Structures are given as C-alpha cells and as structure tokens.
C-alpha cells in the first residue's frame, strides 16, 4: 500500500509517499519526501507569525504535493495531520487533503501530529533501503523495528510528552511539560542571546565550544517522582543570569542550557523505562535531532538492565515532515469519510484513543 502524507501543522508544508516494505519487520520505504519551510520569514520576527505561516503554506501546498507525486503517480490512501498545531496552517493541509480524497475517491486517514512523530522510528531512509535498514543507529540490536511495549519521548517546539505505547494506537500519556516545551526552551533562551529562530540548532552549535559546567543552571523537577517536566524556570534563570552578569560566555551558557535540558529529559525517560519495564524506547520530535541528547540518551539507556533498544530517527526525520504522517496512518489505518475530517489545534498526544488503565 502507498500512502500520501500531508503535513502543515506549523511552518512547514510537507508531502511524502510511503510504502510498506517486504515484511512487517523491515520498516516502511520512503518513495518521496518534500518539505517547504517558511522559516526564513519567521527569522526576521524571531518566531512564527501564524498568519504568515498559513499564507505561505497556501502558496506552496499544491506544488509540494505535485512534487511528492512525481515519481509515484498512483497512491492508495491519503493521511493528513489534523492536530495539534496552528489552526490556519492545519486548515491548509486538511482542506487540501479532503479535496483530493473527494476528487480521487481515495480513503483519508486523520493523523495526530504528536503520535506521528514517534512513527519516524518505523521509517527506512531512501538511501538505506537496499542494505542495512538502520545502519546509522550503529548497534546490531537496533537493526529492526521497535517492539512493544515501548516508552516514547516526544520533544518538539510546542510539546514535551512521555508516553507508554502498548501497541499501535494504544497510547497512554505518562507525563508532559507543565509550562514550556523543551524545544520552546531552546528557542526562547536562544532569543535572549540574540540568536535566530529556531534556537535549538543554534544553541547546539554554540554549545560545541562551551563548558556546560561554567554556569549553575536549574534542572527543574528532575528529583520528583512524577514524569512531568517544567522548563520555564530554566528560561527565567538564563534571563536573570544575563541581567546580572556583565560579561557572559555565550558558548558556556549555550552548553549549560543544552545540558540542563538533556539531564531532565534523560532522567525522566530512564524513570519511565524502569517503571514500565518496556522493550523499546522511542525518541522523536525536532529536539531529538540534538546530537548531545542522542548521545547521552543512548549512553543512559545502554546502561540499564535488562537490555532494551533505543530507537532514534535520523535527524532529518525528527523535525517536521510528512513521511511519518504517512507511516502513522499505515499502522493506524482507520479511514473516515472526508466530510467528517476536521482540524483540531488542541489535540493531545493520546488523542481520542486515550488509555486510562
Ligand atoms: O518537531 P518540530 O520540527 O516541530 C514541532 O512540531 O514543534 O520541532 C521543532 C523544535 C524547535 O523548537 C527547534 O528549536 C528544535 O525542535 N530543534 C532542536 C534541534 N533541531 C531542532 N533543538 C535542539 N537541538 C537541535 N539540533
Ligand atoms: Zn512536530
């Protein structure tokens, strides 16, 4: 089955075609992957202006879909992000997908953007399809698709959620941020330094030359037993530090911020793994592109007994794109009439399939 995925929840306009591999254990093949971003326009304002994001998406959605379908003319179904996200942006993708489903008479599957991030862990990158399916994750153990139950950590620009995935479509929310998301903390603290949006990659670059111990920054909620997070205090600590100290090493502060965020993310993930005795850990979302987080999460999960597999998508598939939207629909194939599909900006990660057990 070939699924066309459409993603427009934030400032990216993306379309991709994904196909199932020769067996369920071989992951999904990416036939096309097109992403257009309006990030340069938002850099001028230091953050996303929703109206501008949606207008840009309207301009390029048809071209992006056309390009994604260039190699693969025939598709079997459409998957579209319905939420969470910016309402204007979501509507562009949702209404386009509904129109195409109606004209082409194809089934359409509504997709939860946050759940979908996790499905980047079932994708096999285009250039790796013929050989080792997941070579860049290194270890032999990772050379397969994730096994359930799994703990998933989704760290994006707007969300930080820990979930227990008992199976496809069986997601239980374990904890999340009480204020800012991890990505938001990167973005907002970067702004304090005058760094461009998005701040995550900029802080990561600066941090390479910095000493993460140079400044004493808080690790909010790290000692608490719950699986929740809080990042706004870290942002405030950085603002106060910048106010109090006349000369600041940007590299050291960047390294300190990055390390404080990583420490909390790694500690809470390890706590969830120990509590729920899972077989896999899945990392996903834009912040999962962070090299230090990938390295330190790998070190922490490898040190746990009994051994479990950590899955981290290649960096390209951590930030927003449509490949994992299609992948999510493949494993949760519940088409509904196009007339019933609606954008839902406030959708939570456990969505309608919330599991309270
Ligand atoms: O998942 P995503 O592309 O969009 C949302 O769904 O929000 O995540 C975007 C977030 C931004 O906050 C960005 O700063 C962060 O991911 N990000 C990073 C890195 N690359 C992107 N954060 C830290 N290190 C990175 N290398
Ligand atoms: Zn996202």
Description:
This protein is α/β, with parallel strands linked by helices. The chain has two domains: 2-133 and 316-340, 2-Layer Sandwich (Nucleotidyltransferase, domain 5); 150-312, Nucleotidyltransferase, domain 5, CATH 3.30.420.40. 36% of the residues lie in helices and 19% in strands. The protein has ten helices and eleven strands. The protein has helices spanning 39-43, 50-68, 87-104, 113-118, 182-193, 199-207, 232-244, 250-276, 291-302, 323-331, and strands at residues 2-7, 12-20, 28-37, 77-83, 108-112, 123-124, 150-155, 160-167, 170-176, 280-284, 309-311. A six-stranded mixed β-sheet has the order 5-4-1-2-3-6, with helices on both faces. It has a five-stranded mixed β-sheet with strand order 9-8-7-10-11. Strand 4, helix 3 and strand 5 form a beta-alpha-beta unit. Helix 2 runs parallel beside helix 3 (87-104), helix 5 packs across helix 6 (199-207) and helix 5 runs antiparallel to helix 8. The longest helix is centred in the last third of the chain and has 27 residues, at 250-276. The two termini are 33 Å apart. 52% of the residues are buried.
Helix content: 25-40%
C-alpha Rg (nearest Å):
20 Å
Envelope shape: globular
The residue ranges in which pLDDT falls below 50 over 5 or more consecutive positions are: 130-142, 353-357
CATH homology superfamily of the largest domain:
ATPase, nucleotide binding domain
Main pleated sheet:
6 strands, mixed
Percent of residues in β-strands: 15-25%
Total DSSP E strands: 11
CATH architecture of the largest domain, by name, is 2-Layer Sandwich
């Amino acid at each position: 089955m070939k699924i066309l995925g459409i993603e427009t929840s934030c400032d990216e306009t993306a379309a991709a075609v994904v196909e199932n591999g020769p067996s369920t254990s071989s992951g999904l093949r990416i036939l096309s992957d097109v992403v257009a971003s309006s990030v340069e326009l938002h850099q001028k304002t230091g953050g996303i202006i929703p109206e501008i994001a949606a207008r840009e998406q309207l301009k390029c959605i048809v071209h992006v879909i056309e390009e994604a379908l260039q190699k693969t003319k025939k598709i079997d179904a459409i998957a579209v992000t319905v939420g969470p996200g910016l309402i204007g942006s979501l509507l562009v993708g949702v209404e386009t997908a509904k129109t195409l489903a109606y004209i082409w008479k194809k089934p359409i599957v509504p997709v939860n953007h946050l759940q979908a991030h996790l499905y980047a862990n079932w994708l096999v990158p285009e250039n790796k399809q013929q050989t080792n399916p997941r070579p860049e994750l290194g270890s032999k153990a990772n050379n397969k698709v994730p096994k359930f139950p799994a703990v998933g950590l989704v760290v994006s620009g707007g969300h930080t959620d820990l979930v227990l995935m008992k199976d496809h479509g069986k997601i239980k929310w374990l904890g999340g941020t009480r204020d800012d998301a991890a990505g938001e903390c990167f973005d907002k603290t970067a702004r304090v330094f005058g760094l461009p949006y998005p701040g995550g990659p900029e802080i990561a670059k600066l941090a390479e030359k910095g000493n993460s111990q140079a400044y004493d920054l808080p690790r909010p909620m790290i000692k608490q037993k719950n699986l929740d997070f809080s990042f706004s205090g870290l942002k405030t600590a950085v603002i106060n530090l910048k106010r109090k100290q006349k000369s600041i090493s940007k590299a050291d502060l960047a390294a300190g911020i990055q390390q404080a965020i990583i420490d909390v993310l790694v500690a809470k993930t390890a706590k969830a793994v120990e509590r729920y005795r899972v077989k896999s850990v899945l990392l996903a979302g834009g912040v999962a592109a962070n090299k230090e987080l990938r390295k330190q999460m790998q070190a922490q999960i490898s040190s746990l007994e009994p051994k479990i597999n950590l899955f981290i998508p290649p960096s390209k598939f951590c930030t927003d794109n449509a490949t994992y939207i299609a992948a999510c629909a493949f494993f949760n194939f519940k088409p509904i009439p196009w007339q019933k599909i609606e954008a839902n900006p406030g959708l939570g990660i456990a969505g309608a399939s919330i599991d309270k057990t």
